[in-house]
Write the structure tokens for this entry.
Amino acid sequence: LAAAINGTLVDTSYYKPYAQVLAQSSRLFDTGLYVQGFAIGEVNSRPIALSCFTDGTAAGSGNVFSLDYFDTGVNISKNNIASGHCNGACFNDTTGNFYIVTGGIAGSPDQIIEYSPEGVVVNTVNFEYSPWAIAWNNDKFYIAVSGSRIVVTDNTFNVLAVKNITLDSGYTYQGMLADDKYLYFPNGNNRTTTTEDRAARNRISVYLHDGTLFKHIEVMIPIEVEGLALYQNRCYANCNSQSASLIFETDLYPSTAD
């Protein structure tokens, strides 16, 4: 996903095998909670990772938002935030804050939470759609909402456009990324039963900004990918194994095809 650097898709065929980042997997996660939203932002030249853990309920009264320095593993803050079901997150370079969406499931409020790198809720927006994933690029938010649509807004959530998008039946889409040309959705086949089968059907689906499917990239991770983030030209996947949550990192090999 180096595509986020220059707006072009650098891979069309082969994903380098993932390598678990063991130094980070032990300190970004809370036992007994499931990771959902995940984002990395650079603040004062330091990478900060936001991991949103859910208790699995629509109300989310037991949710935990954890902020960690991504380069050293030092925890900045860990707060209990009653936020609804935190499905996705992103970082906004212009405002310098994180954003978490909490819609997409019955009973969860259709909200977008603005969260500072210091661990403070800055603002809560009651969104007119039901959001389940969010990404930011070039002063625009790209928000996946119920009804297979992408809502494009400015930095204050004024709606600029609504695009239809076709999602594959039988796949669970989790989180998203955006660059100048593409939207990236990690997703897995929720009908698989074995570890090997699951790994063979995890993927990143790549769409154009108008909602047209560009391609699927297979991702050989045997557990559920919940969110994606970019840092220093590498893609990091936050994954949920039902008993533990782990971070994997990867490179993409460039290709002449686009």
The longest strand covers residues 34-43.
